[in-house]
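request received
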Amino acid sequence: MSDDAHLRVLRSPRFQELVRRRAGFAWTLSVIMLVIYFGFIALVAFAKPLLAVKVGGGVTSLGIVLGLVVIVSAFVLTGIYVRRANSEFDALTARLKEEVQ
Amino acid sequence: MRRFLWVSALAAAIGTAAHIGLAHAAGALEGPVDRQALNLPAIIMFFLFVLGTLGITYRAAMQTRSAADFYAAGGGITGFQNGLAIAGDYMSAASFLGISGLVFASGFDGLIYSIGFLVGWPVILFLIAERLRNLGKFTFADVASFRLEPTSIRILSATGTLVVVAFYLIAQMVGAGKLIELLFGLQYLYAVVIVGILMIVYVAFGGMKATTWVQIIKACLLLAGATFMAFMVLWRFGFSPEAMFAEAVRIHPRGDAIMAPGALVADPVSAISLGLALMFGTAGLPHILMRFFTVSDAQAARKSVFYATGFIAYFYILTFIIGFGAITFLMTDDSFYTAGAGGVINRIGGLLGGTNMAAVHLASAVGGSLFLGFISAVAFATILAVVAGLTLAGASAVSHDLYAEVIARGRANEQKEVRISKMTAVVIGLVAIVLGYVFENQNVAFMVGLAFAVAASCNFPVLLMSVFWKGTTTRGSLIGGFLGLVSAVAMVVLSKAVWVQTLGFPQAIFPYDNPALFSMAIAFAGIWLFSKLDNSQQAKSEQAGFDAQYVRSETGIGAASAHMH
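response:
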């Protein structure tokens, strides 16, 4: 790619929109994942009795439920990102490519 | 009783890997083990696996012509297939045995490790995967050296890669030898030689295509086996987890304590440091990063992480059920235990072969000796697949980074480069056999932890900073990356695992179990500081080159040709 071409992309409003939307989305999801994970680790380190609390009237503890929630949330977050990226962001990228090539 | 005799020594064998949080990758078995009688069903099933994978290797070898074929399977792996292969890299024998054993022994605590291994994936997806695919060709050094001075960055990246591969490989080889000695009744040296030769054949002849398919087949076998076990466990409880938990609490010696966190995560600093190493170490493992170049575009790279996260999450939920299943199936059955002094049976540590054999005993309890053989064969296949991936990553670092860029200065032709890579794979395989033999009776459990720490403290910061921060210069990356590498290694050597347990000093100098919190900070600060201090002409042109890199990393414009042929 020539210098000229990448400058054209860089200045394109569509490129700036793509980057702004995707960066905001990706960093938000990353922060959510970090908060969920290190929040869980903090509970394990500092609030063991809380995680031992029983839920649903049986022996199942809050810790096990939350642990499964962390596992499922990791999968769900990747799903949310892939869904939006494969539709919205890829469409934007495709239009951008048409525009500059 | 008799059918369990051949597994009776694995307590020492699986070692402490699971308990220091390295279970998923380790396979680090330690200490002397008793060789067992030949296990025929397991050997036959493993033989079939080898035959099948050699057939695939032959086909892959026929189709492998260009460098893109060899390093990246011609970019022809689909997102779904790559997701399975990535998951395969992650679901090792020690992960299966170690985490289910941990759940068997202490319940909830096993879940803490599963989660740590999983949560790195979403972050890799959000920040790394597409950019890697858009910028790189065959190795992550392609990405880091996109606008930085290639020679020195490739030396740094190749060093990081080879250090990670070496420690990981030693742990795997020793683990393989011990596990196979136990599960199959083969001599340690034979086991190590068989693993070494098979991985050379897969990599040198079949390249990435064969390596990927070996990984995919193994992932399917392991998922199928684990699914069957979890199904049989839940079936007994009418598919009610609550009923399973209630029964486990009733018969487990620790009673209700298995439903809450125990003593496993002691001090918060170690917990956070370990969490960082697991989360970001994954994003710096060269054999994992290479997998993003095997798919056709950024969209497929994204999909592969999505599928991989799903498979890995599913697998860890299965191991959790298997661990609880082992409590309910095994703890009331005396035939799975050896009695201690005075005929008293310890319901946890007294398990034949130790707690890490919980899943193996459960396989026998729910599926008989034939299924036991199947699970043993899958464990062997798992180790083979992982070492093949490591060998390919190491060989690529030598041929694509060191030879093509540093020695031949970019003037090497493709054929020669691939030939060098194949020769390197043979050398790595032979060295691995020798190291596996030399380290037979050494403590290797810390080596996977070290590999993760180095990946998180050298490879990952260099990669992330070169892609995200315009100010990064070659000098900054080089100094910061090497500081991260050296500090990670130094802190592991000074920590309890090496300083006290291996070298025999009375007191650890570095007080925490994992260095990542500190060594990652050193690496990032080093890259930032020495980039800021770098006022050279070269630094200015590197920073000016960021825009072109930025456009390509965000859009893939200019990258599409990387795999076309």
